[in-house]
Amino acid sequence: MRSGRRIAIDVGKVRLGIALCDQEGILASPLEAVKRPSDTADTISGLVELVSLHQAVEVYVGEPLSLSGKETESTNDSRMIAVELASCLSIPVRMIDERFTTVTAAAKLRAAGLSSRDSKSIIDSASAVEILESALSLEKSSGIAPGQLVGDHVGA
Question: Is 33 left (phi over 0), alpha (psi -120 to 50) or beta?
Fold first, then answer.
């Protein structure tokens, strides 16, 4: 497992769920979801700032495919954010299949005693935690960097 902090982003129309792992890639923790600005440049600028603040070595962006694996409007939106982000960063940005992450996150929040109404403000970052945990688990088990690389970071 490569060392370094990673950030996962669950791209939504209203909010961006954010999760961060520790230097060793052991613990994924939610950060406060970020209200998504209507301007894409402002969205990217805020994410670049967040990546820099946490000194991340890699970014994972959730790729919301349909259950059958087909692309949706949300898939295109997430990819657009990932491509724009990758063009502004000197670290790898990877797309991670996020099917079932919101369902899994919601189930965990319900198990913790939160209603869907109570968990509305944290579900996005809880989903980002699921994306991050999935990516970290895949790398630990396979030794291969997870997901699909966005852009052209050599050696990533």
Answer: beta
